[in-house]
Amino acid sequence: AKHFLARVAEHQQLGAFLCTDEAVALKQAEAADARRAAGEATPLLGVPLAHKDIFVTRDFPSTAASKMLAGYRSPFDATVVEKLAAAGTVTLGKLNCDEFAMGGSNENSAFGPARNPWDTARITGGSSGGSAAAVAAGLVPAATGTDTGGSVRQPAALCNVTGIKPTYGRCSRYGMIAFASSLDQAGPMARTAEDCALLLQAMSGFDPRDATSAERPVDDYVTALRTPREGATAGQPLKGLRIGLPKEFFGEGVAPDVAQAVRAALAEFEKLGATLVDVSLPRTELSIPVYYIIAPAEASSNLSRYDGVRYGHRAREYKDLLDMYCKTRAEGFGPEVKRRIMIGTYVLSHGYYDAYYLQAQKLRRMIADDFQAAFAQCDLVAGPVTPTVARPIGSQTDPVQEYLADIFTLPASLAGLPGMSVPAGFGEGGLPVGLQLIGNYWQEGALLHAAHAFQ
Ligand code: GLN
């Protein structure tokens, strides 16, 4: 813990951490030592990590990278935090992210951007950018993230780490500061699929405090990853695995350097025995308008709780209650959060609900059905995570253009499917490229197995 805290202090310019607390970390490390001395030998015992500042924590402030929650302390730990602590991990601090997880670059944090360790003038990707930067720079061996529309997978891809968003409902959302409740999922980020399997194992499971958490036993991901496939040979551990390549993921929208790195990684999968098959996800493009209706709609509802009364920031001067609400929210929320609240309120308003929200919900179902058609032909779907390598910080000022960069991660999010980002190689400027693997529901074990064989 001391070693990693020193690295965090040394690399503050990365903006990966929003806070650390040495006293808390060392106390947890001593507790882990005591468990070890008592004979416990579980794999995560004493492993230092840090949590995206979307998870509430008793021992550290919880801000969602928003001024609205600056200085806020939760009276309880998120279930994911609680479960990882029970597994013996040591929390060093909280990690930077886009405000309320709204964004794909970490530039929307109220506390400044996180910086990509591969080139500190560039974005980490988002919204779990602090998590990706911290793991990539060796400030922690592993971290938690959350993924609503790509926020674990994108920063993992752009910072060359491994990350997995499990099936919706696998991890409890209790204590995860809500953005879009029908999409939000926790996920681990680490250097390897094996480390992700260890973390996901500890993070997953039914929680009666989250009504959408799945009452379904957790698979043994670590064993899954080490168990040979049926029919596998020594040189071909992935023999018989059919990987579907959606033609919509390999079209004009992908930069040539990214496409090349992804193709090269897929050629490695072929050498490992996998077969590549052509599939189609015909509504891929529609996932952008669908997501940018549903996610803001849910966000506008979830963020109504920040009223200056119950949590966090309150304006200093105001005339009456309404004025207090208005000033508090005007001061507390950043521009992207305000934009989402306005879009969400609009698409849910009387007269527009049927035209936007309801249509989006119908298309969401069709996007999920498209995946089921694809999975009739293959075991996993693969493609790029992002259309380009990490761009320079400050280089994108048009929010709609920024939303387009989510095209490859939104489909799995809308369908609730597990998705993973695995380091694939390098593109222009020697910058990292991620390979995305998408599985059918509850196929986290198969994703981790394939990624592990590749790594
Ligand atoms: N980039 C997407 C958004 O801005 C996804 C964010 C996320 O997954 N939290 O909404």
Automatic annotation (TrEMBL):
SUPFAM superfamilies: Amidase signature (AS) enzymes (SSF75304). The active site is at K52 (charge relay system), S127 (charge relay system), S151 (acyl-ester intermediate). It holds the Pfam family Amidase. Allows the formation of correctly charged Gln-tRNA(Gln) through the transamidation of misacylated Glu-tRNA(Gln) in organisms which lack glutaminyl-tRNA synthetase. The reaction takes place in the presence of glutamine and ATP through an activated gamma-phospho-Glu-tRNA(Gln). It catalyses: L-glutamyl-tRNA(Gln) + L-glutamine + ATP + H2O = L-glutaminyl-tRNA(Gln) + L-glutamate + ADP + phosphate + H(+). GO terms for biological process: translation. This is Glutamyl-tRNA(Gln) amidotransferase subunit A. Signal peptide: none annotated. Heterotrimer of A, B and C subunits. NCBIfam families: gatA (TIGR00132). InterPro entries: Amidase, Amidase_CS, Amidase_dom, AS_sf, GatA. GO terms for molecular function: ATP binding; glutaminyl-tRNA synthase (glutamine-hydrolyzing) activity; transferase activity. Belongs to the amidase family. GatA subfamily. Keywords: ATP-binding, Ligase, Nucleotide-binding, Protein biosynthesis, Transferase. Its EC number is 6.3.5.7. The gene is gatA. It is an enzyme of class 6 (ligase). GO terms for cellular component: glutamyl-tRNA(Gln) amidotransferase complex.
